[in-house]
Amino acid sequence: MQKPRDTLTQPLSLKKKLYTVLIFTKLSTKRFFRDRLALFFGILFPLIFLFVFGSLFSKSGNSVTFNVGLINESNSSIASQFVKQSAASKILKIDSSVSTLSAAETKMVDGQLDATIVLPSNFGVTTNSKIPSGQLLVYYTENNSQAGETLVSILQSQFQSINTKYVQISTPFTAASKELNKNSLTEFDYTFSGLLGFSIVGLGIFGPVNVFPELKKQGILRRLHTTPIRVWQYFTATMASQAIIGLISIAVMFITAILVFNLKVVGNYLEIIIFLVFSIIMILGMGLAIGGWAKNERQAAPLSNIIVFPMLFLSGTFFPRYAMPIWLQHVTNYLPLTPVIDGVRLIATEGYHLTQVGPQLGLMAIWTVIIYAIAFKVFRWE
Amino acid sequence: MAKKIVSAKNLRKVYGDNEVVKGISFDVEEGEVFGILGPNGAGKTTTLEMLEAIRPIDGGKAILDGINVAEDPESVKRVIGVQPQAAAFQDKQKLTEIIEMFAAAYGERVNAMDFLKDVQLADKANSYAESLSGGQRQRLSIAVAIVHSPKVFFMDEPTTGLDPQARRNLWELVQHIQSKGVTVIITTHYMEEAELLCDRVAIMDDGKIIALDTPKQLIEDLLKKGFKKHEQVQQANLEDVFIDLTGKALRD
């Protein structure tokens, strides 16, 4: 049973140390896929967010819509025709529950309606000039003056085409539209890269932050500490296993986004994978630092919340950063999650190459060094 | 006299103002079962942890198999096996995988079934650790601690909380391991366990060793002082009755 002494006095070879990493990676990945709770939070949970945010943002897509009330007080055929056309319009979203101006007013004050269109009783009635005429009214509240005015000019231009049927006039100035054959980013593209960031944070930070204190409580890490395994081996195995799990989770999100929300991926998949692996490793470092430092859940939970939630909101996870004031954009540029979200979007939906996301990679490299320096320093086995 | 495989000289451990191990010295001979006895808080576990190279030694010196523990913890870890007080394992991990994982921690590849057979867990090879009973978990814990064929095996209160059958089974396992030439250092609260298993015992109290000898000699010394039990010693006790009635077979 005992080994000759000389084999024990030799230090463990690098090959053997890497074998340790390999087996730990294999077994912890396996364990993840057997754990229903981990599967839910790691894979299903981000997917639920994808469906929620996806359906919120993909509808508004790149078109403008107005939520309006439509009150028709006229009996003329032109008026009813207008109502029918409005219902089919892509621009107008008519709230059919509104039938009186006072009801519409309440909803406008609540912000549920942008404006209300009223067709007065004389609208479309043929007068003595033998041409039907009328004036509709657009009501809007102070806060919605932009929407109201835009709506008025849209309706004006629609009447223009009707007017020409009755009155011959030549118009010296006109505007025509022409579609550029170029893909522009939709709000969903921003949302999707934000959700990828959210999923990486979920796996990389909340994973170790929840698991490590539990392992310490049960003395499992302490027991590992009685073996020759080193912190770097344990970290590397965790990293590799998280990268595998993270890529699978993200692949599921990509497939869903492509099939359900028409995400158009123009970037190179290999470059996306390389960038994501780097991102996962960097973010995981924060989880390793917090979970590795904390003695128990009571230390781990508040610290991770203080770090994670501001980062999630300020890095453009749930709403795009371009919606923030400029000064805040400058500050949030340097958060660790920001280059991840920007980089994924640039590569996946804008077709950038890794060589073109240098600023993002550079910032991530700096953060990775800082985060892992801390993680190694504060790690405790019990 | 046999070779000294562990030698502790004036070992100390201090937590803040509290000195929990107050300069203890002892030697352990190769191949023996050495017991450390003492009430809770006596410093038994801390002493083991210092020898296991997982707790810094604040004073004194410990040599294990010729290695200075404080200077070369990694080499020490490779020649020792440790069974901690709590036999906890991660969920959703098969027994064979746990053996494979711990062997890998030493950079080694083993046949997990051989080790599971050794501790009568072969039929549970594909179960998860969380489905095991307390006694089974202790046996797995022993199998895990010896995957790398250690020279010194540390056991911290291995039988606490086990039923009489499981305890007897564990004693047999300890004797089996000793028969392979492994030195065993064990802490326990149970005196009959120490009397049966240990070649020599050190009794600790309040961070100091207050007696160190073979169990037989310690008893003789006490009798020499004129000690007498109040009751006449019977040839059997309640535990003997229990084992006679329920049998020695394991119940897990």
Quick tags:
heterodimer; A: 382 residues; mainly alpha; abc type-2 transporter like fold; four-stranded mixed β-sheet; two-stranded antiparallel sheet; 64% helix; 6% strand; elongated; B: 252 residues; alpha/beta; six-stranded mixed β-sheet; four-stranded antiparallel β-sheet; globular
The most extensive contact between chains is: A-B, 33 and 33 residues
What is the average per-residue confidence, as pLDDT of chain B, rounded to a whole number?
91
Radius of gyration of chain A: 30 Å
Instruction: Please report the distance between the alpha carbons of the first and last residues of chain A.
Output: 31 Å
How many domains make up the 3D coordinates of chain A? 2
Strand content of chain A: 5-15%
Order of strands, main sheet of chain B, comes to: 6-7-8-3-9-10
On the 0 to 100 scale, the average pLDDT of chain A is: 87
- Rounded to the nearest angstrom, the distance between the terminal CA atoms of chain B is 41 Å
**Biggest sheet overview of chain A:** 4 strands, mixed
User: How much beta of chain B, percentage-wise?
Assistant: 25-35%
Helical fraction of chain B: 25-40%
The total strand number of chain B stands at 10
Shape descriptor of chain A: elongated
Low-confidence stretches of chain B: none
Helix content of chain A: 55-70%
What is the count of β-strands of chain A?
6
Can you write the helix and strand succession of chain A as a string? Answer: HHHEHEHEEEEHHHHHHHHH
SSE string of chain B, helices as H and strands as E: EEEHEEHEHHHEHEHEEHH
